Amino acid sequence: MNNTAKYISELLYRYECVILPGFGAFLTRRQPAEIQESTHSFFPPQKLISFNSQLKNNDGLLANYIASAENISYTDAVAKIQRYVLSLNEKMAQGKRLELENIGAFFTSVEDTLQFEPLQEVNYLTEAFGLHTFVSPTIKREIEVKREAYKEEVEALEEVAPLAFTPEKRRERPYLQYAATAAIILGIGGFFGLKQISDSTISYNNQEWKKANAEIENRIQEATFEISNPLPAITLNLTKEESTKTVESKNESVVVTGKYHVVAGAFRIASNADKKVRKLKAKGFDARLIEVNKYGLHQVVYQSYSDRIEALQALRKIKREESPRAWLLVQEL
């Protein structure tokens, strides 16, 4: 028994195109739900089946499905399809009408062309499972009839005893006016109250901001800059006499020689810089003040050197024994 038509029907639930190699392709197209007002019929969404005799090449879908369903090889499945198509062509040549189970019928028209008539009873749209076509009975609306009867009765009564309607004077409700006035007053009062609270909050924030800035200014005593990897010095073969300058502090003057300076720190307040100089001198360093840098800070150095190698050795020793934040400044003063 050849169950090819059954397999085609099962594949149409999942695919939009199922090719029967050597015969043609069955195509599906989605159609939305429909209502026919003339017959009061309701049709659920469905897949409409059509046939295209030009698509005959084997895409492997049907053959693989048959091989899996019947547990046979792909070659045997292809041979089974070929035998089924051969039997269909023989019946069509004899002028018979072909009925494919759950799919539709094939027949030859007067013009000797192949015609396909899909089966309407089967819906291949899985989303519409359980939905069927039904016809709704005509709804008779008795309300309209009753309204007409009531209208005729009212007209008859008006002819016998005309009715005169006196408009009722509307009652005044003064309390509503008072309530509206009170609501307006409360709204205005709330607005000004919120504005006053907002102004006081802004004033308080400004005062706190000024206090914070003043405290920050008081706490900023020292700003130290550290260069972990100082730039290598450039050696120029120039003959130049060592310049000698004098830097005066509040209490004393120091003779400055050399352009390599081991910096101990930079201070915004001059008195703090002088205090640092005195501490370093007490430890035996030739400490002094040098020029104020571009940031307005008073720079204090441990000592100045004319030889770069000597300055680097002193820097390593100071970083190891005194302060790891010391760094080397190369500058002619």
TrEMBL record:
Q: Which residues cross the membrane?
A: 175-194
Query: Does this entry carry the keyword Membrane?
Result: yes
Query: Which Gene3D superfamilies does the record cross-reference, listed alphabetically?
Result: Sporulation related repeat
Ranges where the SPOR domain occurs: 254-331
Q: Which PROSITE patterns match?
A: SPOR
Keywords (A to Z) from UniProt: Membrane, Transmembrane, Transmembrane helix
List, alphabetically, the InterPro entries matched.
Answer: HU-CCDC81_bac_1, HU-CCDC81_bac_2, SPOR-like_dom, SPOR-like_sf
Q: Name one Pfam family in it.
A: SPOR
The answer on whether this UniProt entry bears the keyword Transmembrane helix reads yes
Its name, as the record gives it, is: SPOR domain-containing protein
Species name? Aquimarina celericrescens
Instruction: Name the lineage.
Output: Bacteria, Pseudomonadati, Bacteroidota, Flavobacteriia, Flavobacteriales
